[in-house]
Design goal:
This protein is α+β, with helices and mostly antiparallel strands and 332 residues long. The protein has five helices and 19 strands. It has two domains: 111 residues, no CATH class; 181 residues, no CATH class.
């Protein structure tokens, strides 16, 4: 889906940007002479546009950002894009120096939002104008609409998925869950009831915190805003399966769950169920297909490491290398 940049560059000029699958963003610029220039946006792990390169390999713009998001142009005679910190638009109109952070404008000079956080009631200990929980060195402040995958690798390991934040935070966790197994001849069986559990709001926050405390979590946020689609995906499954009362289960020490299918430790487990949901809403996960939490963690970490090496060579050769996710913090 193209995103239109409405800046007035010339009478007929326009800038269109597409979210390229892996290599960053490709821009096609049409000027008054009706010629085209392709610009490649090279992003860092936060999604900030650090370098803009044209087809000839010439660096047109190179920018770094302070932790607050304030951009500093290192070299380049022109600013060819207003995309800057975490990929958001930067506006220096009338010397304001503000970022369009989707829900609110952010003053990168003062490192404060210009209006209160509409979800500030969920975080009473923080100022409603604070940016990144007053710690931009550690956190970024995305839209809150990006799905996050959590991976445990201790003991047997586990993978689950969350959407939203604050009161809208929702967790989907799927598994066999020991006290509800059926027709299992031994502990070593690979089969069982596949149970999906959904937590919301405070219950979701508590689940994530407890899992992190007990087992340690690695968290990866996906770039595309697909929370609504993922919620709808799981809502359809839960609505269909919960219509049959025999599918309801009270999972000890966890909560109420719904049997949605037959679990299999190799072909239908917490990893495959999570990735299937992400794939179903249009996010490409072909490069990280896995059957175990340890394997998934290794693939995601390796993909991020590979994207940081030889990026310019891959870029000029037209190869993709930027994964559609980044490592993020868990709820503390």
């Amino acid at each position: 889906m193209p995103i239109h940049d409405k800046r007035k560059q010339s009478r007929l000029s326009r800038l269109m940007m597409w979210a390229a699958p892996l290599s960053g963003t490709v821009a096609a610029q049409e000027d008054a002479g009706r010629t085209f220039t392709h610009l490649w946006y090279v992003r860092d792990r936060l999604g900030s546009v650090r370098t803009v390169v044209d087809d000839a390999g010439t660096i047109r713009q190179c920018t770094m950002c302070y932790p607050s998001g304030l951009p500093v142009q290192l070299f380049g005679t022109e600013r060819v894009t207003d995309r800057a910190h975490i990929g958001n638009r930067w506006s220096d109109f009338a010397g304001l120096g503000w970022h369009d952070n989707t829900a609110r404008w952010h003053d990168a000079i003062l490192d404060r939002f210009t209006t209160p956080d509409p979800k500030s009631a969920d975080y009473p200990s923080l100022s409603p104008y604070a940016h990144c929980a007053a710690n931009p060195l550690r956190f970024t402040d995305p839209t809150g609409e990006r799905p996050i995958v959590y991976i445990e690798t201790n003991r047997w390991g586990h993978v689950f998925l969350s959407t939203g934040e604050g009161a809208a935070l929702t967790v989907y966790t799927y598994g066999r869950y020991g006290n509800t197994w059926k027709n299992i001849p031994s502990v070593g069986s690979t089969a069982g009831e596949g149970i999906l559990i959904r937590f919301k709001g405070n219950d979701a926050q508590k689940f994530i915190k407890d899992e992190d405390k007990r087992f340690g979590l690695n968290a990866f946020a996906f770039e595309q805003d697909k929370d609504a689609e993922i919620n709808a995906y799981f809502d359809d499954i839960l609505q269909e399966k919960s219509a049959d009362q025999s599918n309801k289960r009270d999972v000890k020490n966890i909560g109420e769950g719904i049997v949605i299918d037959e679990y299999n430790v190799v072909s239908n487990n917490c990893v495959t169920t999570t990735l299937n949901a992400i794939q179903a809403v249009g996010i490409d996960v072909s490069s990280i297909v896995s059957i175990s939490p340890a394997q998934l963690l290794t693939k995601m970490q390796n993909a991020l490491k590979a994207s940081k090496s030889n990026w310019l060579i891959r870029l000029l050769m037209g190869e993709t290398g930027q994964p559609p996710f980044y490592e993020t913090e868990t709820i503390k």
